[in-house]
Amino acid sequence: MIKTDAVPGDYVEIHLTRVIYEGILLEVPDDEKGIVLLKLDSGYNIGFNKKDILKINVLGKAKEKEEEIQIKKDNEKPNIAMIITGGTIASSYDSKTGGVHPLTSPESLFKFYPELFNKVNVAKVEIPFMKASEDMDFKDWQKIARVAEKLLKDNNIKGIIITHGTDTLHYTSSALSFFLRNLNKPVVLTYSQRSVDRASSDANLNLQCSALAAISDMAEVMLVGHASSNDDYCYAMPGVKVRKLHTSRRDAFKVVNGKPYARIFPDRIELISNYKTRNKNKVKTDVKFEDKVALVKIYPGQNPNILDYYAKEKYKGIVLELSGLGHAPTKRARKPWTKKLEEIQKKGIIVCAVSQCINGRVDPLVYSNGREILATGVIYLEDMLAETAFVKLSWVLGHEDWKKDKKIVKEKMLENVAGELNNRIE
Questions:
Q1: What percent of the chain has pLDDT over 70?
Q2: What CATH number has the domain bearing residue 43?
Q3: Looking at the structure, do residues 191 and 280 belong to the same domain, yes or no?
């Protein structure tokens, strides 16, 4: 039995026969009492069998109380606001369990990322909720939009940074792109893929770059994050043309069917493409949203009767992720979709089509089955991303005066409201 005064949270030295490890001692689950867990300085956790450990030395005791931080304002720096919603970027590790938990105050966040203040003052902080992004829905997007509207109308605020979890960040950025009309200042969404306890955390650079974006001339809803796996610069990316393309890389988000607005280094911005500039518009929110909209992916051999569920549940719209240029099984397939698509559209359900492909646009006129699908009345959405199409259709159908007429719905879906359509893909 190892004799030690070490408790979870202490910084310790674990001696094995030939190797010594240093790190933070972690709590052990009840069903694994035969092991000792250690968080290494790299941020990774490692486990040891107790019988293999010669001794454990305490190098530093666990902190009983989080130290307070004083935020000092510099009158020479521009003011920005922050909206903190949760996610890895607004979490810290628990030295006892090795897991992450939400930060309890803005000061806790700022303690980890003091470089945020190199270029700006954080004059206002709003925390409408703290959630993992996978737990969010449209009501949370509406709440963020309303908070943002209030901050954007403040003449002392140059721009806004919104911290957010990564899993559904591109849904939120799309929603805000449609919800915030007459945008006058930068609205910057940012994130971190890796928690603050890891040496490879991406949060610090992302926040520094976001601060520069928030005081820039770009009056856009944009996502700012690592451009590569290195800590060199970030991209400022259009909120409606971005998608999470990797589960864990720091440069997980990429622009699809478009270009970033800019490269952002900690000390400068290099412009790449056109954007709307800062202006004196009076921003207003349009947060109408129809909850009865679905996003459905077509796969080989899929039974079209799945659409009966949405008709029974009185859904108002469906976005279909079709294969290739915009194809679904037709008359030559064992389970053709054509008849069922005609049926549900006669019941008043709006059906739109996007491609499952990452890049490119739908074009139903190239192949005969695409023409058959088009003939049923399906609205093909050019190069729009599936997630953006889902959000936009929900937003369009949320307007009572628009959804009464399918022609108006089609016009609105094919109107380039927030840069979601790109006529020329390079």
A1: 89
A2: 2.30.30.520
A3: yes
Global pTM value: 0.84
Write down the catalytic residue from 85, 88, 190, 376. Answer: 88
Q: Is residue 125 domain-shared with residue 28, that is, in the same domain?
A: no
* CA nearest neighbour of 88 among 211, 215, 196: 196
More confident residue, 311 or 61: 311
Q: Measured between alpha carbons, how far is residue 179 from residues 143, 144, 333, 341 in Å?
A: 11, 10, 41, 30
The yes-or-no answer on residue 61 being catalytic is no
Active site residue 167: yes
Who's near 142: CB < 8 A, 6+ residues apart?
A: 179, 287, 289
Local confidence band at 1 (pLDDT 50, 70, 90 cut-offs): low
Contact assessment for residue 391 and residue 169, using Cβ atoms and an 8 Å cutoff: no
Give the count of domains, the chain: 3
Q: Is residue 4 part of a domain?
A: no
Tokens of residue 113, six digits: 């990322």
- 30 catalytic, yes or no? no
Q: Judge whether 71 lies within some domain.
A: no
- Please indicate whether residue 288 is annotated as part of the active site: no
Q: What is the pLDDT of residues 338-384, one digit of tens each?
A: 999 999 999 999 999 999 999 999 999 999 999 999 999 999 999 99
Q: Which of 163, 166, 376, 388 is catalytic?
A: 166
